[in-house]
Specification:
homodimer; 566 residues; alpha+beta; Butyryl-CoA Dehydrogenase, subunit A, domain 2; 7-stranded mixed β-sheet; two-stranded antiparallel ribbon; globular
């Protein structure tokens, strides 16, 4: 069965779970009401189904290649990219003054979700550009904005993020690339960067690299890092393309998946760059870029989960095998049904969390209310890590549902599993997300967590009247998690880190239950059955996770390096 | 770091966890005492380290190919195979009268574990032959035994298993291949078989296919299936090779991993075959072959877990990143340490369970005691499913520990993850294993389960004196699982199937805790720290799993096919 963009599921979540009407109720986003949402989801969904999904396999079979220094992209990707650009989907949330649509991030993320399910390799390209647009909007000079934003938003040019160096991965502060002032306001950028997603292509006129580098005499660590715009071709003031810059793709990585996306080693050899933001202020600009990119990566996981889930259900409903009752297809077997129900229930939970995060970002942007900002910040690592864990788990279960066929590449089930694997790693590994959650995001003493859990409890209180058997365990889990949060906040940071992943998972499980409970309250019988399954079967994992969190770091760190190496 | 066969860990488990001395205490296996075990593990370990492990990457990079009907194997595989054959490792447990060593299955499995960690693709070849040897020993005529067994045991010839057809996967009874009597005692075998591991090669003189097919007028389903020996070259009575048989490799599959192992579509076109076992008795012979193969596949998962774990630890101990205390390597981060400790603790648990199963098989063979037979039967699906789940989880965590490098194929972390994926699928998917456990293996009313859990409780009782804080939770979990088993036995089969996977996982967790507790009792401090980690952090999963089991199938099957397809 070909991929079908989950338009109605997203619409349901916007309307019934995450309260999107609050976003369209603000003055800023007043135009993004119900009709607009329908038009966008329908139109983007159609593009995903008809144009992007057919590129999924060719991207895997015919990886991007580097030929004489030129990147050749997978067959059909140029046309697919053009469709995305011409649909206006890259700059949906960008400022209208530069050609964007000024729409809520919620809608950008909904479209990203659908594009990711259709063809993750290609979708990664506009995701990078979206991050760059946002960084420039917040931090670049007016000249740079005027020159670059219209081209990035239209898709004529695209953007990349250049952070990582061989010795500087999660520890960005260890980077060594240099920026020497040229005396004319520009800088000479030199150094090697790795893991540059879409480092080059053969379908945009220009590729705009945002590069982190160090000015001479900068302090060590993250406080001595600055951000530079380093375009492949140096544009004139009118946007016309000038000289080739001194940068090149050294090689492309041979990866487990995502073959359609060229992952480059980039070499900058005195390339001309322009400062973005203040000197030594690169980390702040990078975090602007990374925060929404983290949510975007969470939605990549969810998009792949959706696609892998659809793919597995179609196979299971069609494949006759064994003495199954009913239709005789393997979907009638309880253990297969359990896998498929888990896949669907988790995809719904993860999508709801990610969309709740997007709504919080929009509300923060529209209202300036610090509570929304705090909520968005708290939900981001959960949306990223849980979304991508669900992506991996659903894709792995999709392979399993296919049986032997799952291991054969022709079915496409394995590709989902290989492609989505990196989403748990890039934009900060899921371990880094968990550390961010229990570290930085609990520095408010647990206020943001408490506010979320109060909402879960309130929802459960309301639901008790009509859905007591579902509401009780949700209320109880939220209460337990609240107590756990108070306990965790009182621990030293080192203690918290050993508990970080389990805490993040527990929080996601509870937020997922909250979403399912709301879905059950909508009166839709199918959604109530799925909610019952989730709350009966998956929510109880919280019990074990709480025990793990309470273990802290002691049992973990007691296992010595020597114990492990032995 | 190159792979190092876990000789001392296996030796520790044999001596301190699974009571191997009971095996060498029998008359049948009296020669397989301590010195013999040392010699075997050391010798086989050296071959794995020096000869097989270097074949791991070449097998992935240069898959087996089909050229003009001939399978060309990966570079070095022929030499690797010769080393395995010449070491006598294929027929270790085969009967001495045909050239085997007559050693316990426990030792064969230990060597298989090490070979799997070194190079899974190649190890799959002798694993298939071992299954065939066993099937022939139990079911073949004296003529076939005399002709085939010496060649299979020496490795001059190798064996395959031909069960699956496009419409007959888990449901073997649906197969359609035909066997027509030729009138001279042989049969003409016709049909297509898929997923034939090592369907052909360029390093053995002959390839012996055991093929399931239907005699004319046989009843439908599994009761009408017979087993045939169908060699690639028809041997004369003296074992010299005669005419090419009418069978061929149609194609090789393009798989997610295990590229070094040629997975063939085989076509039999009136090929000459010899009946093995009685007419219509093919399933019994196949189960002989499959039962130990299932344990063997469990050990494939464990072998890969070992290798992936070693690989990840080495990387984490070397990779400097961030403000980690101590050495500054990422192994100092609590979340990385947690992943590595989980990997090591789970590998130990899974290996202990698999070796306990092997010991039970040996004790059943040596003593004929039905209790040992029942224990082996009960442990087999657990060893297979848990061993391969651990293989997948550890390999996935290994990728994660490597960060971005994990997604790049050059590091080899991704290959472990891709290769091991199929182990959860072949020889009966893990879902099938779980259904076998709660179905067939509980048909004794729970007697075998009860006997195992009593042993766990007894072990915990003894441990209470010196290791109370570890013993208490193990005792409690075993008690809980005992009650759960009584409850499950009282349920209808359809109810049990929805609970099957969770029950299997819970049982594995408890058996793993039993093994860790024994390890802690050995007085080795490092093992005690790892046991503490396992019992504190991983055993509590039982709580959630028990809740899942008690949910049965109701919430699962309430989610309709239409709900899922929607």
């Amino acid at each position: 069965m070909p991929y079908r963009a989950p338009v109605s599921d997203i619409r349901f979540i916007l309307d019934n779970v995450v309260g999107y009407d609050r976003v369209s109720g603000t003055e800023k986003f007043a135009e993004a009401g119900s009709d607009m949402v329908d038009a966008i989801l329908t139109e983007a969904g159609r593009m995903c189904d008809d144009i992007l999904a057919p590129l999924q396999r060719p991207g895997d079979l015919h990886p991007a290649t580097l030929e004489n220094g030129v990147v050749r992209t997978s067959p059909g990707f140029a046309d697919g990219y053009r469709a995305i650009a011409e649909g206006g989907w890259i700059g949906m949330s960008a400022s209208p003054e530069n050609g964007g649509m000024g729409l809520p991030i919620s809608l950008t993320m909904a479209v990203n979700d659908m594009m990711s399910g259709a063809c993750l390799s290609l979708q990664l390209n506009p995701l990078m550009t979206q991050g760059q647009i946002e960084a420039l909007e917040h931090h670049a000079s007016d000249e740079i904005k005027a020159l670059y934003l219209p081209k990035l938003i239209s898709g004529e040019w695209c953007g990349t993020m250049n952070l990582t160096e061989p010795q500087a991965g999660s520890d960005v502060g260890a980077l060594r690339s240099k920026a020497e002032p040229n005396g004319d306001g520009t800088y000479a950028i030199s150094g090697q960067k790795i893991y540059i997603s879409w480092g080059d292509n053969d379908f945009t006129e220009n590729v705009c690299h945002l590069v982190l580098a160090r000015l001479p005499d900068s302090v060590p660590g993250t406080k001595g890092i600055s951000l530079f715009m380093v375009p492949k071709f140096i544009p004139g003031d009118d946007g016309s393309l000038g000289a080739r810059n001194n940068l090149r793709v050294v090689s492309l990585e041979h990866k487990m998946g995502l073959h359609g996306s060229p992952t480059a080693v980039m070499e900058y050899d005195g390339a001309t760059g322009w400062l973005v933001g203040p000197e030594n202020g690169g980390m702040a600009a990078m975090f602007t870029m990374m925060n929404n990119a983290r949510l975007g990566v969470g939605l990549q996981g969810i998009g792949v989960a959706e696609a892998a889930g659809q793919h597995a259900v179609a196979y299971a409903a069609d494949r006759k095998q064994g003495r199954a009752p009913g239709t005789g297809a393997i979907i009638e077997h309880a253990d297969v049904r359990r896998m498929l129900a888990t896949m669907k229930a988790d995809t719904f939970a993860a999508r709801s969390i990610a969309m709740a995060c997007a709504v919080a970002i929009d509300m923060a942007n529209a209202t300036g209310d610090a509570n929304w900002t705090a909520r968005a910040a708290f939900l981001t690592p959960i949306a990223k890590a849980f979304g991508t864990e669900v992506g991996m788990n659903v894709a792995a279960a999709g392979v399993q549902v296919h049986g032997g066929m799952g291991f054969i590449e022709e079915t496409g089930a394995a590709q989902y599993s290989r492609d989505v694997r990196v989403t748990a790693i890039y934009e900060g590994t899921n371990g880094i997300q968990a550390m961010d959650l229990v570290g930085r995001k609990l520095m408010d003493g647990g206020a943001a967590a408490r506010a979320l859990l109060e909402e879960v409890c309130d929802g459960a209180e309301v639901a008790k009247a009509t859905h007591a058997s579902l509401a009780e365990p949700v209320w109880h889990a939220a209460e337990t998690l609240g107590e756990l949060t108070e306990w965790l906040v009182a621990q030293e940071l080192t203690e918290r880190f050993g508990a970080a992943t389990a805490y993040l998972e527990a929080f996601a499980r509870v937020l997922g239950a909250h979403a399912h409970l709301k879905a059950a309250m909508s009166g839709d019988d199918a959604r109530q059955r799925l909610a019952t399954f989730y709350i009966t079967r998956l929510l109880p994992e919280v019990t074990s996770l709480v025990q793990q969190v309470r273990s802290g770091s002691e049992d973990v760190m007691a296992v010595t390096v020597e114990d492990l190496v032995a």
